[in-house]
Write a structure and sequence with these properties.
Layout lengths: L3 H25 L8 E7 H11 L3 E7 L13 H9 L2 E4 L16 E3 H5 L15 H16 L4 H29 L3 E4 L5 H6 L3 E2 L2 H8 L6 H12 L6 E4 L5 H12 L4 E4 L9 H15 L2
Parallel strand pairs: 1-2, 1-3, 3-4, 5-6, 5-7, 7-8
């Protein structure tokens, strides 16, 4: 029977041999590697389409998942930086909306701006363009296919499935456009503009809205013009970004209520417990209801 000291020595030797063997496997590449793709997105609504297209062949991690976090002001943590650096692909909006991710050294980037053809200086709220998510789904399928050719057809099939889920939104926009008749509307910020334009509405206060977006006070002239438009009922409705905390905009909403101008409420970020389709549908429905 082996004494305790000899037994411990043998165990230590066995452990060392096992460690060296595993190390050798790792170095010569014989250790099995995961073929799952890892993807990060700056926002949860882009994460949704990214995961839908990726399917079971990987994992998508959105960085911003709280509706209270403004992507403009987000400051990435060390944990976030490591997550991005390790990912096979990082997806972000572009147009300086979430440019902080460019500093985190991802292996490969895909911008939604490049998918839609948008350039710096254009409205950054690209997810409100009715065709953006459909285009992004296809672009992601092609990108995943290049990274993982083995599952190329799966990615294309998944993209088509996601595009089918977007079909009701396309139908709603077309339905609204048949009745909008080029009516004038006003907005608190240029958040919902792409959707409004697709619906056939004419936005009358873009200069006012841009000042609000940049968190500066609109000019006296812009304020008076909007007040007059509301009092004279020259606009069909007013679109309010409910995440705004501007006193000027709060007063405009009160004026709309006083003069019976409908207020359509939208948000810049995805509300809790909703997905992209339900989010858009709820906002589109407000406009559709006003036309009845």
């Amino acid at each position: 029977m082996l004494n305790s000291k000899i037994f411990k020595t043998l165990l230590a030797a066995l452990g060392l041999c096992l460690t060296l063997a595993l190390s050798a496997c790792a170095k010569d590449g014989s250790q099995p590697k995961s073929d799952q793709l890892t993807v990060v997105t700056t926002t949860d609504f882009y994460g949704e389409v990214a995961q839908a297209v990726l399917g079971s062949h990987g994992k998508v991690t959105p960085i911003i998942t709280s509706p209270s976090v403004d992507p403009h002001d987000y400051e990435p943590t060390t944990k976030t930086a490591k997550l991005v650096a390790k990912a096979d692909l990082a997806v972000y909006n572009g147009l300086e909306y979430d440019s902080w991710i460019k500093k985190l050294g991802a292996k490969k980037y895909l911008t939604v701006a490049s998918v839609t053809g948008a350039k710096i200086g254009q409205n950054e709220h690209l997810w409100y363009q009715p065709q953006t998510m459909s285009k992004l789904a296809l672009a992601l399928a092609k990108e995943y296919g290049r990274l993982d050719p083995k599952h190329k057809q799966d990615y294309l099939a998944n993209a088509k499935k996601y595009q089918a889920k977007l079909a009701p939104l396309t139908k709603m926009v077309a339905q609204i456009k048949t009745k909008s008749q080029g009516q004038k509307v006003a907005v608190s910020e240029p958040v919902f503009d792409y959707s409004l334009e697709a619906m056939g509405y004419h936005i009358t206060n873009k200069h006012f809205a841009m000042a609000a977006e940049e968190e500066t006070d609109p000019s006296y002239t812009d304020i008076k013009k909007l007040q007059t438009a509301i009092k004279n009922k020259e606009i069909a409705f007013f679109v309010l970004n409910t995440q705004s905390d501007s006193k000027v905009i709060t007063n405009m909403v009160k004026l709309c209520q006083e003069y019976k101008i409908p207020v359509v409420k939208v948000t810049e970020t995805l509300p809790a417990h909703q997905n992209y389709v339900s989010w858009m549908k709820k906002q589109y429905q407000q406009v559709l209801t006003l036309q009845k």
